[in-house]
Specification:
The chain is α+β, with helices and mostly antiparallel strands. It folds into 3 domains: about 195-380, Transferase(Phosphotransferase), domain 1 (Orthogonal Bundle); about 420-565, Rossmann fold (3-Layer(aba) Sandwich), CATH 3.40.50; about 595-880, Tetratricopeptide repeat domain (Serine Threonine Protein Phosphatase 5, Tetratricopeptide repeat). The chain starts with 8 loop residues before the first helix and ends with a helix.
């Protein structure tokens, strides 16, 4: 033991919370750090031979700045080189043949030890395998060499020994003694015959289970160090050796620092740099450390997250071609998307470790260890068919909530189900009617609606039967006299009905399944959980229902029903409020929905459904009918949110659909089709994605397939206004104008104020040369939208085709005047100008639409309103450029 006794348990607990005021840098120190960082990062990009001269010129005679930059460069080299090959690894003769000859020959004496072999060398020192001359204990000896010799290097070596000597953990390299002789200062430490974790990862990325076997003890070792007031500050795979038994050993506390405590606040240890905050390896540094703030336990949590990412993917989460790019990625970009092999639960742990804000990370390495251990234990259980007793389940849920994470849930109800002895025959079509709000508070009506939609979605993803979409079920239920009547109108074999009740922090769902033909209750049950576990509660209902009525669960969905994350109740409520507004599908309601989704994400950045829903809102706001702005503004936002959702949950059908929507209007035809097909594979009952896929097929003039997907959407959602309207649009473009008109009039009969149905009806009537009716419908669209620019463009097109050029030109002139002070979709003017015979002007506006990637450009080949331009070389050039030849 060096330099005094190990801290007491009370001191160890104080280490994590006490802050020495001397640690907080002054404004001058932070300004110095900002300048030093800029010079340091640029210096790293230059060859070693040029760095000295560059630093002198860049610092302009500022000696304090020069010292700071030189110190940073020295520590970067030491941190990056000494342990890039494990210093504790015994290398064979061939492996060391090309290295600089070691300073100490075999047989040399260092204190009471005799050198047996040279192991490795780095920027700070050399490491040898040695043996105690009396005890015959095999050890590793670290010495200071080269330009690092002198008082500073000796201080660093002693610092490492002092820090590591207070630690006694099976996964931390043990320090035996520190000394000095004619060879200089040295440390004697445990010899580990093994391979560095970095070398293991380079050879082959470990399996998830093996990676967890490394990560859990490493997190435990880190927690042990933090409990004793030590922050490692350079945790990375090359500083970890795996011994022959597969045990990871954490090395190199040479850049570690002691957390400030009352015992150390008066006489602080000498620092490596002026700020005592910037050290370690750039690619592993936490954002706050890069910004010049002191490292603490949470900075090590960040490095642990980087290590976990590397273990799972074989890559680093933040990289760049230059140090500038790497630091920029760490400070401002999300980690790179992880491969599908990484389980969602593990991805969530990594994402939380890599939160930019230290307060949003795990605050203790013990929390990471517990989270990983819970996942590993969960992976060892059977995925399906195992009942977990209530006491065990509650224990797991409490443990999961303690780390803010994933909980393993039961597989069969949280109450004893009341099932009839004679289960029904095969259910082929199921409808979930809107659950009643039994709370008694009208302000939480959105909650019951949201739970209804969640159950519908989960059943659609999990079961092999047809699930009627929420919109149709809600519309029919609103006017049906009985539950059985609603089921009959929907064509369902069975109808799920029930209520949701919120009381304090508890949520209760009471449901029963009814056979419409007889009115007989086939199954009923009551489920209750803490509001934090509402997602698990919904999964309880789905699984219990599937068991009760013998629904076949899709193989890829079973695991998702048995492992469900916890969610902050406030975040989930914001998400449900967003869904409530999203369902209205107007520009105003979508803006309100966006506000709710953003608040949900602020409360829980790892909640994938909120990101996916936000992506869809941005997609819709970038369209002509609903839109509030240019696709150049909204589509990149949609893409970013969809990708974030898929990083969190690659099985999100809504996220895949939203990304497919983006790719469609970015003319990435193959990528769009891939995303849409994946979304349908994940949830065959998701009606909207089938409509979007139909639109893509329509763009490509694959009309038979487009009509098939549109009809499939209608079968799933037969009373949905948006579905019926899009079916009519596809039929119109396919040349089935009569069918289109009938479909669109059906939608209008359901809601005479639904703008999109009137819009598509205007088009269909125009294509049938029923111009008087088309003009009337067009005027109705203008009135319903408050004379919006898109509606006026529609009416101008009708007038132009109806041979009323004066009316058409007057509207075009008005739109041109508007475009000088408000956003007018460029696509709008091409169709009326083409119909007026002004091809040059029409193509000019098409080119503008191409430049802004307007949604309408995707339908360039399919849209009959542009038939007059076919054959025009400039039109054909645009067609070729977007890949529609």
């Amino acid at each position: 033991m060096l330099d005094g006794a190990m801290p007491s348990p009370n001191e160890s607990r104080r280490n994590a919370s006490f802050r020495d005021p001397q640690v907080d840098a002054s404004a001058d120190d932070l300004a110095l750090w900002a300048r030093a960082k800029a010079v340091f990062l640029e210096a790293l990009e230059r060859p070693d031979s040029e760095r000295g001269e560059f630093v002198r010129e860049a610092c302009g005679g500022d000696h304090r700045l020069t010292r700071e930059v030189e110190s940073l460069l020295e520590n970067e080299q030491a941190a990056s080189h000494l342990w890039e090959e494990p210093a504790i690894q015994l290398l064979g003769e061939d492996a060391v043949a090309g290295l600089t000859p070691p300073r100490l020959p075999v047989g040399a004496r260092v204190g009471n030890y005799e050198v047996r072999a040279f192991i490795a060398a780095g920027g700070m020192g050399e490491v040898y395998r040695a043996e105690h001359t009396v005890l015959r204990r095999e050890v590793a000896i670290k010495t200071v060499v080269g330009r690092a010799t002198g008082e500073a290097a000796a201080r660093r070596l002693i610092r490492e020994a002092r820090h590591a000597s207070v630690l006694a953990h099976p996964n931390i390299c043990t320090i035996y003694e520190v000394g000095e002789d004619v060879a200089g200062p040295f440390i004697v430490m445990q010899y580990v015959a093994g391979r560095s974790l970095s070398a293991i990862i380079r050879e082959a990325v470990p399996s998830v289970d093996v990676a967890m076997g490394y990560a859990i003890p490493i997190a435990d070792a880190l927690e042990h160090a933090h409990q004793h007031g030590i922050v490692h500050r350079d945790l990375k795979s090359s500083n970890i050796v795996v011994d022959p038994d597969g045990r990871p050993i954490v090395l190199d506390f040479g850049v570690a620092k002691r957390l400030p405590t009352p015992a150390h606040s008066e006489s602080r240890e000498p620092t490596i740099t002026a700020t005592d905050s910037v050290t370690g390896t750039l690619s592993h540094m936490a954002p706050e450390v890069l910004l010049g703030k002191p490292a603490d336990a949470r900075s090590d949590i960040w490095s642990l997250g980087v290590l976990l990412y590397e273990l799972m993917t074989g890559e680093l989460p933040f990289t760049g071609r230059t140090p500038y790019e790497t630091s920029s990625a760490i400070l401002g970009e999300p980690p790179r998307a992880m491969r599908g092999r990484v389980p969602l639960a593990v991805r969530l742990v990594i994402e939380r470790c890599l939160a930019k804000d230290p307060d949003r990370r795990y605050q203790r390495a013990a929390d990471v260890r517990m989270a990983l251990d819970a996942i590993r234990r969960r992976r060892a259980w059977p995925v399906i068919g195992r009942l977990i007793i209530s006491v065990r389940r509650r224990t797991l849920i409490a443990a999961g909530a303690g780390v803010g994470f994933i909980v393993a849930i039961m597989l069969a109800g949280s109450a004893v189900a009341r099932r009839l002895a004679d289960p029904p025959g095969r259910v082929s079509t199921l409808a979930v009617l809107p659950l009643r709000n039994a709370t008694g508070d009208r302000d939480v009506a959105y909650y019951a609606d949201g739970v209804t939609e969640a159950l519908t979605t989960q059943l659609g993803e999990a079961s092999s039967v047809r699930i009627i979409a929420r919109a149709s079920a809600a519309r029919v239920a609103a006017r049906a006299r009985t539950v059985g009547d609603a089921g009959t109108q929907l064509g369902a074999d069975a109808v799920l009905d029930g209520a949701v009740r919120m009381a304090g922090n508890r949520v209760e769902i009471d449901v029963h399944l009814v056979q419409p033909a007889t009115g007989r209750v086939l199954w009923s049950d009551r489920f209750e959980r803490n509001a934090t576990d509402v997602l698990a509660l919904e999964a309880d209902v789905v699984h219990s229902l599937a068991v009760a009525v013998r629904l076949t669960l899709r193989a890829d969905a079973r695991g998702r029903l048995t492992t469900v994350r916890a969610v902050a109740p406030a975040a989930y409520e914001e998400y449900l409020k967003g869904r409530y507004e999203w369902n209205n599908r107007t520009a105003q309601s979508l803006q309100v929905a966006i506000d709710h989704y953003r608040r949900a994400i602020e409360m829980d950045p790892t909640y994938a459904p909120a990101h996916a829903a936000l992506a869809d809102c941005y997609n819709q706001l970038g369209t002509v009918m609903v839109g509030a702005g240019s696709p150049q503004e909204f589509r990149p936002r949609a893409s970013a949110e969809a990708i974030k959702a898929l990083q969190l949950d690659p099985y999100s059908a809504e996220a895949h659909a939203a990304l497919g929507y983006v790719y469609h209007y970015e003319w990435r035809w193959a990528d769009a089709e891939k995303e849409f097909r994946r979304a349908i594979e994940l949830n065959p009952n998701y009606s909207l994605v089938r409509i979007w896929y139909a639109n893509l097929l329509m763009s490509r003039r694959r009309m038979t397939e487009a009509v098939g997907q549109a009809f499939a959407a209608r079968d799933l959602d037969p009373f949905s206004l948006i579905i019926l309207t899009n079916v009519g649009w596809v039929l119109d473009f396919a040349g089935r104008h009569d069918d289109a008109v009938r479909q669109l009039r059906q939608a209008i009969a359901m809601d005479s104020s639904y703008v999109q149905a009137h819009w598509r009806l205007t088009d269909a009537l125009m294509h049938m040369d029923r111009f008087d009716e088309a003009i009337d419908e067009g005027k109705r669209v203008v009135a319903l939208t408050g004379e919006s620019a898109p509606a006026l463009g529609l009416l101008a097109t009708v007038y132009a085709n109806a041979h009323e050029p004066d009316h058409a030109r007057a509207i075009v002139a008005d739109l041109l005047a508007r475009s000088r002070h408000q956003y007018v979709p460029t696509w709008l003017l091409a169709a009326p100008l083409a119909a007026l015979g002004e091809k040059d002007a029409a193509v000019t506006w098409l080119e503008k639409g191409f430049a802004e990637r307007s949604n309408g450009v995707a339908y360039l080949r399919a849209d009959p309103d542009l038939a007059a331009l076919h054959g025009d070389p400039r039109y054909e050039a645009i067609v070729a450029r977007i890949g529609l030849e």
